[in-house]
Amino acid sequence: MERTFTDRHAYVDRLDGQARGRLLAMGTARTYATGDVLLHENDTTRHVLLVHEGYLKITLSAGNGRRILLALRGPGSVVGELAAIDGHPRLARVTAADAVRAVTIPADDFVRYLRDTPGAALALLGTVADRLRTSDHRRLDAAAHTVHRRLALLLLDVSPGHPEASPDRPIPLSQAELADHLGTSLRSVARALEQLRADGAVATRRRGITVLSRDALTDAAHDDGDHNRPSRPSAPSAPSAPSRPSSPRTRHLS
């Protein structure tokens, strides 16, 4: 599946050994606690972040006090590269979703690295292209698929970086953040999670969501049934008269 909430291929993974070694040796490492803001929206700073451990939330202000979750960036991902390249203000806020260790690389050093290291700029272009493709897929999903399926796809995207069935490291996203990201109501997300719990796919806790079965999530990601519609008991059928042939029934598909 190409729909990815995190980077499908982290920037570091796109580099050859020599280029990767140069990048990992750059900058200054620092640790951040959950909720720490690493980059501010509309800020004019230009440094780049390289994630070593943990996850960063990328959020955008909706103008009415709400913050919309755009993506997560995990180990190996580069963050803030656009401002380093074009000098424009930051597009979004970057916050630590859990305990994070990241390296700060000055903009001039990063641009020099892209210019002087074979393959580094092309690898970054591939990362940006993947993120644009993800945005297109997300718009398609919002128009064509149920909340149940879209939520399963999202949790599949996030879960590889988190140990499955481990309550010590749940996916650090609230139901409200999931609802905002999917462009739906909190109630719809709660119903979809209820179905995923019943299927044995996930467990929900106060600190986040734990994936229990990727197989069950994969099944849900391919299921476009309407799980938000309450089921209705079928009316009992009237007995057929023995002297008259029964009329053919009309099958309703949903």
Kindly describe this structure:
Helices cover 35% and strands 19% of the residues. The longest helix has 25 residues, at 120-144. It contains eight helices and ten strands. α5 crosses α7 (186-198), α5 packs antiparallel against α8 (214-221) and α6 crosses α7. Mean pLDDT is 80; it is low at 161-167, 226-241 and 243-254. The chain is globular. The chain is α+β, with helices and mostly antiparallel strands and 254 residues long.
Summarize the entry for a quick read.
The protein has helices at 17-24, 81-86, 107-116, 120-144, 147-158, 175-182, 186-198, 214-221; strands spanning 28-32, 37-39, 48-53, 56-61, 67-73, 78-79, 93-96, 100-105, 202-205, 208-211. It has 254 residues and is of the alpha+beta class.
Summed over residues and divided by their number, the pLDDT gives a mean of 80
Give me the secondary-structure category.
Answer: alpha+beta
Please describe the biggest sheet, giving its number of strands, its sense, and whether it closes into a barrel.
4 strands, antiparallel
Number of helices: 8
Helix content: 25-40%
Helix-strand pattern: HEEEEEEHEEHHHHHEEH
The coarse overall form would be globular
Please report the total strand number as a whole number. 10
Q: For the largest beta sheet, what order do the strands appear in spatially? A: 1-8-3-6
- Name the beta content range: 15-25%
